[in-house]
Amino acid sequence: MGDDRLDRREFLRLTAGGAVCAVAAGAGCSSGSDKPKKSAANAPGAGNAAPRELRIATWSHFVPAYDAWLDNEFTKRWGEQHDVRVVVDHLPLNELPIRGDAEAAAKRGHDLFWFINPRAALEDDVIDHREVVDEVTGKLGKMVPHVERSVFNPKTNKFFAFPDHWSAGPIHYRVDLWDQVQPGLRPSTWDDIRRAGATLKARGYPLGLGLSTDLDSGWTLNTLMHGYGSSIQDEDANPTINTPATIEAVKACAEIYRTGMTDEVFAWDASSNNRLLASGRGSMVFNAISALRTAEQQDPELASRIALAPAPIGPSGAEPRGVYVLGSYVIWKFTPQPDLAKQFLVDLSLAYRDAFLQSSFYNLPAFPGAVPDLAALVATDTAAKPPNKYALLADATSWSTNIGSPGFLNAAIDEIINLPLLSKMFSAAARGQMSPADAVAAAEAEMRPIFEKWRERGKI
């Protein structure tokens, strides 16, 4: 992120000096830039020597209206109700893992820290969030099963994070372009995508499946693996990457890249697929619905030609299982305000119908009871043409899953995704640097020691 990026050493220096969250009361915040945004939602207790303060680190949302609601409405109202000065720091997405690791190492930082993927590897640095989970469950009912598998460690019986939301990752595709390949053709299966890619690319409309080191690419590739009946691990956290199914998935991806994509996918960042689709050049991308929302704002006519579809079906006959964002907060063990942080998470969960609407349906509730009328809300949308375009979100749990499925997200999966070894495996075969079988074998050689390390530490 250019000059705005802090390396680990510099951030530790700043945290040690207490300079991370120096903000002016009433400072505004908006999305869309890589620069950290800061919001002091309120400053109760003016004139007191030491008013209570809750410090929160989170991302700059892909739907800016959500940040405006969080900063200017929810946290302001919550702070006034609890006589707390709430400080929200919006950090660049790619800096969040670095900052989180630095705060854990320094034992100093924010009271609440948000990650776009739950950080199971930081389990020893955070509280057990069970108390918060139990209170919210008592008021809203159980959380989505794949969400629970993302924040709970069955080995240690600990909730190492509290889920903020999850986001589905549907296919976005240009109906008009796919109809030109074959009337009625849709990206329903991975074979449909493979067969259509060459024609679409030849006409100047490439497919967009990330093969970069960005997390977004890892989610897409994990979805592709599931379509072929492949997974990183089994239900008991044993590595299962080196199978014929994985090799077939890698072969399919290499062919889709060679015939239907361009080299740009090797350098994609978190917004590249959004930009490709909004430019009018992209015939298909995987992304949360922020990609379509962006197109609706920038070019409504183009957006009317974009449709959504669930994760594709593969040749294995397995149910499609898409992987995407699962945002979660952690409360560090060293926070001076654990009770305030817990209360904030409870109250945010209870207010999640507003969060869902302000995020334009991006933030699906981790606890479905928070938005009991979700199906009705997504059935008709004023910005969508047709207005039921987002209706597939009502049953998105049926075609979505967690990272690490069919097992739980654990510390080994956390490390593998963040390295990122999946992208390395798929891109090596796509570039022709390795055969699919050799690329899979090399990935296994790197993954097995990671599983062994975390098993020895008692985390899996």
Overall geometry: globular
The CATH superfamily of the largest domain is Periplasmic binding protein-like II
Taking strands numbered 1, 2, ... along the chain, how are they ordered across the largest sheet? Answer: 1-3-2-4-12-7-13
CATH architecture of the largest domain: 3-Layer(aba) Sandwich
Weakly predicted, low-confidence segments: 1-35
The radius of gyration is 22 Å
Describe the model:
It is a single chain. The chain is globular, with a radius of gyration of 22 Å. The chain has two domains: 215 residues, D-Maltodextrin-Binding Protein, domain 2; 210 residues, Periplasmic binding protein-like II (D-Maltodextrin-Binding Protein, domain 2, 3-Layer(aba) Sandwich), CATH 3.40.190. It is built from 18 helices and 13 strands. 42% of the residues lie in helices and 11% in strands. The chain has 460 residues and is of the alpha+beta class. The longest helix is centred in the C-terminal third of the chain and has 21 residues. Strand 2, helix 2 and strand 3 form a beta-alpha-beta unit. The strands form three sheets. It has a seven-stranded mixed beta sheet, with helices on both faces.
